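Please decode residue identities from the backbone states below.
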């Protein structure tokens, strides 16, 4: 069986409380490590599982909940209604059509997606021999049954026009069936959940270092594609977060545009010490402030963040950034710069890098090659990766390290 989406499962409260042990046992039995554990509501949790060695994007996400609760709403579909009416289908238990129709209509209203194919799917369920609106009234109430019948009877254009009213109705309905005590407990649990997410974001930040020609950009792009299944999106950055505009753009009379490729990194001269210090201070603020305004929110939203170069480039080649400053300055302040979860130093032979990009002299290329390699023992969670081999081999190795790192952090929570 091939499943092209996440698997949504409704469980009892007692089963939900034992999920960590159950998923841990499932992971061991089938050698499928848990790479993400995401709490998305009071009694809602998702697990993403993946083998460590993958040759293509892989995603197995199991979404568990007790009651159906959507963002901005309280309880919408009680678990007892779903579980008491479910019926066997192959290796699963699936909802009764009466329950599924109500659930799908709620989903369409909340997501504001009433496309013809989605509506046709719901109407197809109403043609089932075991579906009846009388049963919907018994399982829920007359109000929700009338709402669903009215929803399906409308024209598509009316569904869009009534979407705000429909969402308002569901919000009031969710408050009514949840009760005041549940709503208060839910709001408090959400504050606690969000604070925990802020303290320990489930996303990950990875940076790629190495001289020109080592393959950073290609490896970063292909790695983010390969790991896409274990994250909820990915973002790639060049050197810095980019919260502040390029320093050269501040010149009103002749603003410059920041580029992610520098074909001649050493052809321009270095600026004097004062200008260099001003530029360094400006970009240091971007690394520090930009992380919390740009990168950190993406990590909280479960993204994979990849940097092509990073602050650590200052340790190797300040000439690239036109700066004329002592080497100890960026090293002294490096403890204040937020650190990536993982750093990969890509290393190819100088001859291979020269053949790929003839941008630096052989002497400078050898120097940078040696300095970058020396960073491996000095930076936290830093790995040396041989990029002389094929892109597939490199990305597979890096992906395995990232997934193992994620699985290890998740294992501490299970």
């Amino acid at each position: 069986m091939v499943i092209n989406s996440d698997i949504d499962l409704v469980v009892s409260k007692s089963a939900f409380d034992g999920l960590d042990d159950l998923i841990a046992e499932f992971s061991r039995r089938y050698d499928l490590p848990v790479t993400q554990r995401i709490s998305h509501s009071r009694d809602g949790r998702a697990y993403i599982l993946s083998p460590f060695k993958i040759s293509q994007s892989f995603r197995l996400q199991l979404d568990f909940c007790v009651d159906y609760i959507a963002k901005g709403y309280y309880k919408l579909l009680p678990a007892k209604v779903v579980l008491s009416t479910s019926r066997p289908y192959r290796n699963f238990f699936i909802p009764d059509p009466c329950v599924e129709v109500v659930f799908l209509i709620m989903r369409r209203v909340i997501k504001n997606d009433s496309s013809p194919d989605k509506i046709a799917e719901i109407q197809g369920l109403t043609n089932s021999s075991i579906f009846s609106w009388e049963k919907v009234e018994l399982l829920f109430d007359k109000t929700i049954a009338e709402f669903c019948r009215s929803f399906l009877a409308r024209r598509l254009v009316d569904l869009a026009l009534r979407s705000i009213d429909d969402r308002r109705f569901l919000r009031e309905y969710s408050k009514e069936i949840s009760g005041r005590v549940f709503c208060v407990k839910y709001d408090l649990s959400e504050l606690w959940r969000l604070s925990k997410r802020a303290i320990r974001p489930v996303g990950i930040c990875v940076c790629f270092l190495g001289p020109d020609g080592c393959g950073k950009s290609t490896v970063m792009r292909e790695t983010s594609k390969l790991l896409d299944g274990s994250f909820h999106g990915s973002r790639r950055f060049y050197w810095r977060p980019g919260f502040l505009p390029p320093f050269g753009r501040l010149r009103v009379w002749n603003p410059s545009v920041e580029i992610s490729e520098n074909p001649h990194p050493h052809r321009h001269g270095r600026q004097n010490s004062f200008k260099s210090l001003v530029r360094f201070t400006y970009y240091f603020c971007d690394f520090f402030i930009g992380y919390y305004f740009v990168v950190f929110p993406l990590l909280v939203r479960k993204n994979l963040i990849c940097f092509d170069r990073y602050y650590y480039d200052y340790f190797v080649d300040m000439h690239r950034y036109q700066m004329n400053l002592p080497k100890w300055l960026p090293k002294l302040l490096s403890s204040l710069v937020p650190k990536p979860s993982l750093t990969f130093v890509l290393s190819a032979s100088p001859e291979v890098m020269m053949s790929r990009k003839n941008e630096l002299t052989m002497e400078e290329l050898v120097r940078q090659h040696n300095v970058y390699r020396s960073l491996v023992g000095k930076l936290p969670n830093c790995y040396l990766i041989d990029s002389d081999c094929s892109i597939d081999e490199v990305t597979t190795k890096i992906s395995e390290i990232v997934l193992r790192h994620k699985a290890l952090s998740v294992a501490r929570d299970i």
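Observation: The chain has 16 helices and 13 strands.
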